[in-house]
Amino acid sequence: MSQQSFPHSPFDTMEIDPEKMARSAINAARTMLGVLGVIGILIGVALLVWPGKSLVVAATFAGVFFVITGVVRISVGIFTREVSSGFRILNLILGLFLLFGGIVALKNLTAAAGVLTVITVVLIGMGWFIEGIATLAQAGRGKSRAWPGPAVRSRLSRDSW
């Protein structure tokens, strides 16, 4: 069986190949994942323990998370020499955005909690919207076709106006 060759894209230079990475780059990636994992666990515990204050707690932890993640990504972008330039530049840019966002969130926790609420509501709304579309599409797949899709389409067609 022959291997299929995929076309090369500009993002291939940012691919992480553990066999080509130096031990220090691997350790930096593992450290970053470990720090992010611990922070994620702390955020989850705080939200479970203090549900009444969850928005401010979540905004505080999100701000701290963004600051730490930004610093780690900036450090990886500056000090990791064994990876491609694209990977380093991407880490620097993302790190600066995360650091700035974290500082802004920590400066105004009330606004950050409000933004967090809006983002959560938008994501829930998008989920329900997609669920509704998927349910309607699935309902039209059966042999009985007991859903109003064809009738709605015929009434909304240009000819019926």
From TrEMBL:
Q: Which residues cross the membrane?
A: 31-50, 56-76, 88-106, 112-137
Task: Tell me one Pfam family matched here.
Answer: DUF308
Annotated InterPro entries: DUF308_memb
Record's keyword annotation contains Transmembrane helix: yes
Q: What UniProt keywords apply to this chain's record, in alphabetical order?
A: Membrane, Transmembrane, Transmembrane helix
Please identify the protein, giving its name as recorded: Acid-resistance membrane protein
Signal peptide start-end: none
